[in-house]
Amino acid sequence: MVDWILTRPDAWFGPVWGPAVFDTTANLAFIVAIVVPLLLCVAYLTLWERKFIGWIQIRIGPNRVGPLGLLQPIADGIKLLLKEIIVPTQASTQLFFVAPVMVLMPALAAWAVIPFAPEVVLADVNAGLLYLMAMTSLGVYGVIIAGWASNSKYAFLGAMRSAAQMVSYELAMGFSLVVVLMVSGSLNLSDIVNGQGRGSFAAKGLNFLSWNWLPLLPIVVVYFVSGVAETNRAPFDVVEGESEIVAGHMVEYSGMAFAMFFLGEYANMILISTLTAVMFFGGWQAPIDSALFNWLPPFGWLALKVFVVVTLFLWFRATFPRYRYDQIMRLGWKIFIPLTLAWIAVIGIWMQTPWSLWR
Amino acid sequence: MAEIRNYTLNFGPQHPAAHGVLRLVLEMDGEVVQRADPHIGLLHRATEKLAESRTFIQSLPYMDRLDYVCMLCSEHAFCMAMEKLLGVDVPLRAQYIRVMFDEITRVMSHLFGLAALGLDLGAMTVFLYCFREREDLFDCYEAVSGARMHAAYYRPGGVYRDLPDAMPQYQPSRFRGANDLKVLNRNRQGSLLDFIEDFTARFPKCIDDYETLLTENRIWKQRTVGIGVVSPERALALGFTGPMLRGSGVAWDLRKKQPYEVYDRVDFDVAIGKNGDSYDRYLVRVEEMRQSNRIIKQCVDWLRANPGPVITDNHKVAPPSRVEMKSNMEELIHHFKLFTEGMHVPEGEAYAAVEHPKGEFGVYFVSDGANKPYRMKLRSPAFAHLSSMNEMSRGHMLADAVTIISTLDIVFGDIDR
User: Fold this and answer.
1) Which residues of chain A have a CB within 8 Å of the CB of B129?
2) Average pLDDT of each block of 10 consecutive residues along chain B (417 residues)?
3) Per-residue CA distances from A339 to A96, A105, A330 (Å)
4) Cα distance from A107 to chain B (closest Cα, Å)?
5) Chain segment B118-147, per-residue pLDDT in tens
6) B7 to chain A nearest CA, in Å?
7) Which of A157, A237, A246 lies at the smallest CB-CB distance from B15?
8) Per residue, what are the HEC states of B259-316?
């Protein structure tokens, strides 16, 4: 049966067009296989967020729709789909509708280079890290366009804030990635993961001590905190700044257009968590190389790590007050960027010494 | 070169941080507030005018609805002003009950203020923690008056009735099993005083919880220290009272300076700040909750030991008991007169002020001897506080303006009246 399907493109389109058709179809199937579960994850991340924050705040969280509230995200989705999308009369209609797409699209497109398990990656490109940088930077355009096209003062303030904030933290993030690039010597994400599986600790089976997080500890912190800022999550959520500028760039959006921003934000959260896991916590590798830990498949380990990191996002949100806009700038420019630059120098010198861990 | 102009931002009345219906017209230079122009009157209900066409006692429930997070304190000032005009004495037990409920109200108000401040600064968890304790205090209101917010419990000459011997219980429902019920009703088995005592025992721990989340939190301090600084001189000149004034370092508290009821018999300290910024005001409010807790505890102990009447026996002012009314012609007449035309208040003027959770709340009556006031004037603390909005927020950023509104702890029922 499988053979029959695999030979169909050649049989129907001939030996010249057949392989091309086969590749396209296979890639499209792979894309669907990534995006659909991803969107489901996003939907259920909202539920997990509400539940988890509910527990922190001595509440119950959603428990009415379906058993244990498990259908809540579906109900929310249906509600948002059925809601009217109101376009303000003063808004620039075309840009107004382009903006949410521009937020969601890069957040999904970035997943193309994420390795889910050994050899399981949509596009195993050598410039994977660069591609990620490019894609995560694109998201800010959607936010700025949304703020501009809404023609509202609150939205405009939100857009201005996001432009400044996301660009600043992009720098700190970029420098953190430079350090990762230095130690792994590759921009390919699969190579970065594989590189973490080598070392004196990994040789003893203690993989988790060979992962990047230990030698690059300050960078992990900077990267993750910058990631929180990059996704505009609390305590850096001044772009939405609920109590100051109401919802920032999203203030004029309703229905599915609003939901697109939401999906984009949560997809980005999962993306940043995945990247943290991939670059610093050994991606799909099990923490200890033993039968007990290898019982969980590689993808399971990645999912587990992502879940823990994503939960950290939610924990931050429930615990910290919100920074002020200028304080965020100060943290980014005066603390994170010098810190990462210094660490680049430290790692650079370390790598030239006989004690270098990365050879 | 193009001319750069400030732009005007309409902050509210529909805004999450507007604390009700504040409309703030902000003139902004980028993110920096150049001028803040508070517009009020969106919750104006003409309470003062309404009082002129109602009997005194009918106006009393309006007091609850002025500052709807510190209900009984407003009633207290109203009753004290009437008592001054009427010249009636309040039984000692009623005075203790009033002080206890004033302090319960103070804790409620500060919890609400802290919750709102937390929410405005993005510390959402504090909001729910505070509301958990506030809920218990609402239950005290419910036990004593039947209403959870608008109690209408104080009366000229005392309080409406003595403290109940039983607390309302949680009832079973589809979502609450027998075990949940047992936990929820655990501290509700005894009288109201038992419940309040249990509350005072665990409340300091709860305040510690809020403080763990906020007081030493770096982000919290960055957001509040040095924001909206008011010097002691300016605070006095602007007519600040309550925590706003004490936050600036002026030790002015009506409970100490002009003790009313039994405040001179209970032991408590006045919390004062040093720098007059938002952080100090926050600390003052937290400390006041601790002090209020002390006062409540002392009142509970006294009330347990000293039963007695809770309202004056002058039946020109307070209704007689049902038994007396049914058996005695004169009492029946009193009852009938009180509930038809109300009490006649001697001609004269009186002003009474209490240390409301937000500052000095005063009621001023002009009576022409009729059964309703010729004129009633309310002195609300938040009105004076809000008028300083421009001075406090100028030069700060938009997010700080939100902090300042929140530390003003304004409630619009009180400002617009």
Assistant:
1) 57-58
2) 78 79 86 87 88 89 88 90 90 91 92 89 87 89 88 88 86 82 85 90 90 87 88 90 89 88 88 89 91 91 89 86 88 89 88 90 90 90 88 87 88 85
3) 38, 32, 13
4) 26
5) 888 888 888 889 998 898 899 888 889 888
6) 9
7) A246
8) CCCCCCCCCCCCCCCCCCCHHHHHHHHHHHHHHHHHHHHHHHHHHHHCCCCCECCCCC
